[in-house]
Amino acid sequence: MQTTQNSIFKEYLFTFSTLENNTLEYSISEVSQLTGIKDFTLRVWEKRYKLMPPARTKNNKRVYREADVEMLRRFAALIKRGYKISEIVSMSAEEISIKIGTVFVPKTSNQIIKRLMKLSETFDTAEFDKELKHDILDQGLEHAIINIIVPMMETMEAKYIQDPDYLPVKQFAYDIIRRRIIVASDVDEMEDSEGYVIFSPLDDNGELSLLIVDYILKKYGRQPVYCGHKVRIPQVKAAIEKSGCRKVVLVGRLYETTESIADFVDDIRKISGIDVIVLDRNYCDVQMKKASANNTQTTIINDIQALTEYLKK
Predict the structure, then answer these.
(1) Per-residue pLDDT tens for 93-132?
(2) Which listed CATH number (3.40.50.280, 3.60.15.10, 2.60.40.150, 3.40.50.1580) goes with 195-312?
(3) Rounded-to-integer distance, Cα 150 and Cα 171, Å
(4) Which of 48, 172, 178, 217 satisfies CB 3.0 to 4.6 Å to 222 for a cystine?
(5) Higher local confidence (pLDDT), 120 or 74
(6) Alpha-carbon span 276 to 294, nearest angstrom
(7) Domain spans in the chain, listed from the N-terminal domain onward
(8) Cα(131)–Cα(119) distance, integer angstroms
(9) What is the pLDDT of residues 222-260, one digit of tens each?
(10) Band of the pLDDT at 31, cuts 50, 70, 90?
């Protein structure tokens, strides 16, 4: 029976090892919070059913990945429906997936955004972070960025424009999102990967947009040279010369706004011998045609999903 169980766990780990944010790591206590399974129970399962086992740190502490957590969450959901762990470990991954389909009713992006915004407005750090972590785990960070984080940023920006007193709420959410993306971006860099200088000329919230781009570039095997926000053209030129990168990403707004980055685009396009990628929600078709006419090395991208498609080429 042990051989069968081990093969099932290998099948699970193979299935979930492709999760987009599988670089995140969790301690056993964090896994317990995410799954509702007690630390003691996890240790018993590990010993009795050869469950996982998780990786270990240099100090011999257990370290779990998204693949582990996702599998355990599915086990926990079935246990709540009356299944015994001994029954679950005898099921195939396909059988469990079928049964899970009757347990989970996925939330829509709009429901998640409303929930996160409500938690922001009450400054509930623990619940906001927990909800965001769950959403990233369920959907993958890239999907969460495109369908939850960026639309929520846009909604919060609109609220802030209508009511300046909304600023602390917006900054509260942005700070937790920023920390989550930083954790996900902390991965080993690929050798000999193509370098991209990335910067934003914007003052307000330019950092969060840059962090999103930094994560996406790394995910698709590129090497970002992170220059930060509130950066001006002479500083970008210096970064290009010192890094040797021939591609530059100018990061504007990822959501609708009246602010224009046209002047910055015109200036960066004057640097010869580079490919310029402009990522901005508001850079319109007229400006795009102008860019194409003046500089064939300029690529206009209006959202993160389009950036991912560009990087897949």
Answers:
(1) 778 877 766 655 555 678 889 999 999 999 999 999 988 9
(2) 3.40.50.280
(3) 14
(4) 217
(5) 120
(6) 12
(7) 2-100, 109-185, 195-312
(8) 9
(9) 999 999 888 888 898 899 989 988 899 988 877 655 456
(10) confident
First to last CA, the chain: 46
**CATH code that applies to domain 2-100:** 1.10.1660.10
Q: What amino acid occupies position 284?
A: C
Calculate Rg over the CA atoms of the chain.
Answer: 22
User: Per-residue pLDDT averaged across 166-182, rounded?
Assistant: 92
Which three-class secondary structure state does DSSP give residue 250?
A: strand
How high is the pLDDT of residue 116?
94
Cα–Cα distance for residue pair 173/154, rounded to 1 Å: 12
Q: How far apart are CA 229 and CA 211, in angstroms?
A: 10
Q: Is 62 left (phi over 0), alpha (psi -120 to 50) or beta?
A: beta
Q: To which residue do tokens 């947009």 refer?
A: 209
- Report DSSP letters for 258-299, one per residue: S---HHHHHHHTTSTT-EEEEE-TT--HHHHHHHHHH-TTEE
Strand partners, 42: none
Q: Report H helices in the chain.
A: 2-16, 28-35, 39-48, 66-80, 85-88, 93-100, 109-121, 125-139, 141-144, 150-162, 167-185, 206-219, 233-243, 262-268, 285-294, 304-312
Closest listed residue to residue 283, CA positions, set 307, 306, 300, 304: 300
